[in-house]
Amino acid sequence: MTAPDRHAALAATRALPGIPVDDDGPVFREPWEAHAFAMAVTLHARGLFTWPEWAAALAEEISSAQAAGDADCGDTYYRHWLATLERLVAEKGVASAETLTRYCNAWDHAADRTPHGRPIELGPEDFAG
Fold it and tell me: Around 34, how many Cα atoms within 13 Å sit in the side-chain half-sphere?
């Protein structure tokens, strides 16, 4: 990150004290946040959506969450990011909402059966109802 970008990122994070930062600027709280970020960047690079389209969808998701009572302190930002990603993937026909729900439930099942500290591995048994 260049010095002006670093300063801009740090200034932006001061406006939302719930966003974690280090000396270089904003950081991810959890690995899944970085994964969601990377998926959006990759899908954009592959032409699934434009950045203006992404920004508009994310802004709409955040506005909806605020209207539903989200305090918007920065700690839910990547939940909005993920919801936007899931919505665009479904809208673009990459995966249906039902498929996304099926995989979400399977990952939850896999996480429940995985001992703490071990990698979560998704298996066929995780898709059983």
Answer: 6
Tens of pLDDT, residues 78-101: 999 999 999 999 999 999 889 989
Distance of alpha carbon 105 from alpha carbon 111, whole angstroms: 10
Q: Where are the domains of the chain?
A: 28-95
Tokens of 28: 């991810």
Between CA 123 and CA 109 the distance in angstroms is 10
Residue type for position 75: D
pTM: 0.72
Question: Residues near 127 by Cβ (< 8 Å), separated by ≥ 6?
Answer: 102, 106
